[in-house]
Amino acid sequence: MCVEDVEMLVNNRLRGLKIGGNFEDALRMEVDQANSSPFTTEIKQATPPKRFSTPFFTCFNGDSDPESHLKYFKSLMILYKTEDALMCKVFAMNLRGAAQDWFHTLPSGSISSFKELAYVFTKEYTSYRTIKKNPDHLFNVHKKSDESLQDYIKRFKAERANIVGCDDQIASSAFKRGLPIECELYRELTISPCQILIEVFATAEHYALWDDDQIAAKKANQAAKLASEENCKRRSQP
User: Fold this and answer.
1) Residue 39: beta bridge partners?
2) What total of structural domains would you count in the chain?
3) Of 125, 194, 195, 221, which shows the fewest CB atoms inside 10 Å?
């Protein structure tokens, strides 16, 4: 069953369950909802596999990316992905707070598969979806004038880690582009442009150590200069 079929099936079922009825019927339905389950009878009556132990989950509270949570859930339940009823029940168990309240607003018997549950879940929390960054985003990362080379490397790696499937060649080009032209590392990477990304970072780390040594030496010289000036002032005083 494709996504479009799931969407049509769920929407039609929800629409059919909500049509008609007066105020008393609506109130009775609301009370019944609180005491019932959105799952069909088939899912509710299904028994878990023998020796199944519920994994430890970080619960979903309704304030984070639903797609990331679904991937996280599926990875922990990968051994039981064919157990549709089990997937539905365990997923409902790790909802908390507002997400748990939302789950119980689903009409009774409206969910007959994990695909349907995943569809209504992502649809409900679509506004919390994280906008995925494009690899070209790395070309916007530049070394700041007051930033050490080591800090730039860390910041660039952190940005790259947030981009799924980032090409190494693009990352290498973006890393070099973010360096000031007068930087010695920029010159090195220009002379040896065929390095793979891991080699680029290795070269950068060597230059970062040299850069840190220069910064430390500069600070030591400044401190010595200030101390010398203070001594001269003391000697000049009567």
Assistant:
1) 111
2) 2
3) 194
